[in-house]
């Protein structure tokens, strides 16, 4: 093809057709420029298609993860609520009179106080975005901002859960195991084996009170982080819907 154009230019020069040669040369330049522009445009299309394909896959992965996160948070919240209501009931019963409450009901309330749960979301896709600095693949500005702020929001919320967990593991649970035959004992019979005197102790009352306060902070804290976390999850699910 290049040889063909070169022969045309040579023929025009030999015939002293300078004007025609200049016109032809100019036309050839225009064709070259058009070719370059087309090549650049095709390259841009290919780049856009590649980025769009990557974004679609990211949105799909994020959507799936946050659907799972929503269900997990809902479950963890329900556990926190059960434990909180259990501590509320125990505090309202104090001083506990065994003649006024069924032992099975008391056992159920006590069991609720020394178990703890934490929210552990799926976030492998977000971690990949962080590690590869690829947030710019997300074209939706609102979604990108939510994803960039997600880790801080999640960590702020779990601080309260971890504080509550530390209190249970290091203080509440050891006390209960010492004075009460917990569910960790196979074929337990707490209503027969336990010495219920511990129910009247100041230490027991304080432990239940601290557990109640920690659960209240998780569920209804001043910053309402649980609600913010839940709303953020819902918004991310909405914005990644395809």
SSE topology:
Elements: H1 2-14, H2 18-93, H3 103-113, H4 124-131, H5 141-179, H6 190-193, H7 202-220, H8 225-239
Helix pairs in contact: 2-3, 2-7, 2-8, 5-7, 5-8
Written account of the structure:
By secondary structure, this protein is mostly helical. Helix 2 packs antiparallel against helix 3 (103-113), helix 2 packs antiparallel against helix 8 and helix 5 (141-179) packs across helix 8. The two termini are 47 Å apart. The chain is built from 8 helices and no strands. The protein is rod-shaped.
- Number of beta strands: 0
Order of helices and strands: HHHHHHHH
How many structurally independent domains? 1
The span between the termini is 47 Å
What's the overall geometry? rod-shaped
Judged by helices, strands and strand pairing, the structural class is mainly alpha
Question: Key terms for this structure?
Answer:
242 residues; mainly alpha
Quick structural summary:
With 242 residues, the protein is mostly helical. It is built from eight helices and no strands.
